[in-house]
């Protein structure tokens, strides 16, 4: 069973089934259970190349977080979406290991029962390690930023109230150097 709790707020739990990539909001005390509708966020089915084109091979959802927007009184789910493309060239299809995956961020509102895309910041992390930390309207993920010549760990955050991402450097302390 691939079901995990990916966040809690005011007695509600957000569940995620990794085998189906479905999320649900559950109130254990009332037994109410809400499965958000499929996302209506547009995904490119192909991307042009100089020779041939890239076709969408896989859509996967990662690092789901759940929280409450105190300004609007609405429960929110945020998830990172990875789009993986293959190359189609002269009738052949093969994996493109040099082309980076396309990342999207989706935001679900329980009140409107709909998904919306949030622009992914240009200064984004390279890899998310840990997530599902939600405190006072802000979701936090431990991430890695950088390329082969130097990685550093950072905290990537998302404010549910103003729908803004932020990056925090991890401070130096005894036994740790970023």
From TrEMBL:
It holds the Pfam family FBA_1. Residues 11-171 form the F-box associated beta-propeller type domain. Coiled coil: none annotated. This is F-box associated beta-propeller type 1 domain-containing protein.
